[in-house]
C-alpha cells in the first residue's frame, strides 16, 4: 500500500492510496466504513468542516473507490501537530466499488479454489450468551459460509467442527441471520490468531436476498458495524 496527498482546494483534501491487490483495497474499505471514521495526524491546523476525499486505487481497476469524509474535531498536540477526527461517508458513486468487487470475483473464479467468491468484512462479533467470551472478528463472507478470527491464545471450547453456529447482523434491509456449522478450525500460532470457518445451511429466500445485498456492499449497516454469534443449542434455538 502507498499513499500521497495531492491537493487541497476550496476546503477539500484529496488523499490517494494505492493497493497491490483488490482484496486488500476491499479489506481497508470495509474496515474504514465499518468504523465510521478515522484519526489522522497532521502538521497543519486543518479546520473543522474540511472535506476529505480518499481515493483508493488498484492497478487492475481503472476507476478508484472514493470514500468521502469530513473533519469533525481537531485536537492540538504538545509538539505543535494536530489530530484530525474524520467522519466517513461511503458516497453515492458506486462505479469504482462495483469494479473492484467484480475484479475480486473474477480473480477468485479463475483460481477455482472455492465454490463461492468471498469478500473481506472486518466486523467485530460478540458471543453474548457466554460470559467472558473472547472477541471474535468476521474476516470474510461468501454465499456459502463465513470465516472468523478469535482474539485469544486458543479457540474456545465451543468452537469445534460440526458445532451449530449462528451469525446475526443488522442491515438496512433488516436483520440478517446466517446459520450453519463449523467446518474447520485452525489453532493459530505465536503470531497468528486462531481462526475457524463455517458452512451455511440452506438459507431462506429472504435471507439469501439480504446476504446478496451485503456481499455487494449495497445494504451495509450503519457504523460502527457489530455482529452477534452463538454456538450449539443457543444457535439452534435462534434459527428462524
From TrEMBL:
Residues 13-91, 113-215 form the PilZ domain. One of its GO terms (molecular function) is cyclic-di-GMP binding. This is Pilus assembly protein PilZ. It comes from Cystobacter ferrugineus. Gene3D superfamilies: predicted glycosyltransferase like domains.
Amino acid at each position: 500500500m502507498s499513499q500521497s496527498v495531492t491537493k487541497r482546494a476550496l476546503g477539500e483534501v484529496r488523499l490517494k492510496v494505492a493497493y497491490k491487490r483488490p482484496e486488500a483495497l476491499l479489506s481497508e474499505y470495509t474496515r474504514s466504513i465499518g468504523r465510521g471514521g478515522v484519526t489522522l495526524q497532521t502538521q497543519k491546523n486543518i479546520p473543522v468542516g474540511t472535506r476529505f476525499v480518499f481515493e483508493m486505487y488498484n492497478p487492475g481497476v481503472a476507476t478508484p473507490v472514493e470514500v468521502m469524509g469530513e473533519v469533525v474535531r481537531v485536537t492540538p498536540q504538545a509538539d505543535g501537530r494536530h489530530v484530525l477526527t474524520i467522519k466517513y461517508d461511503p458516497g453515492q458513486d458506486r462505479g469504482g466499488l462495483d469494479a473492484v468487487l467484480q475484479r475480486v470475483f473474477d480473480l477468485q473464479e479463475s483460481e477455482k479454489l472455492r465454490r463461492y467468491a468471498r469478500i473481506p468484512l472486518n466486523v467485530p462479533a460478540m458471543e453474548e450468551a457466554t460470559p467472558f467470551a473472547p472477541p471474535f472478528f468476521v474476516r470474510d463472507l461468501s454465499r456459502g459460509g463465513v470465516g472468523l478470527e478469535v482474539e485469544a491464545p486458543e479457540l474456545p471450547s465451543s468452537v469445534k467442527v460440526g458445532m451449530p453456529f449462528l451469525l446475526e447482523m443488522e442491515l438496512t434491509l433488516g436483520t440478517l441471520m446466517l446459520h450453519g456449522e463449523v467446518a474447520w478450525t485452525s489453532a493459530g500460532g505465536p503470531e497468528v490468531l486462531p481462526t475457524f470457518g463455517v458452512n451455511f445451511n440452506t438459507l431462506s429466500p429472504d435471507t439469501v436476498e439480504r446476504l446478496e445485498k451485503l456481499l455487494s456492499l449495497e445494504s451495509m449497516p450503519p457504523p460502527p458495524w457489530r455482529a452477534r454469534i452463538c454456538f450449539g443449542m443457543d444457535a439452534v434455538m435462534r434459527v428462524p
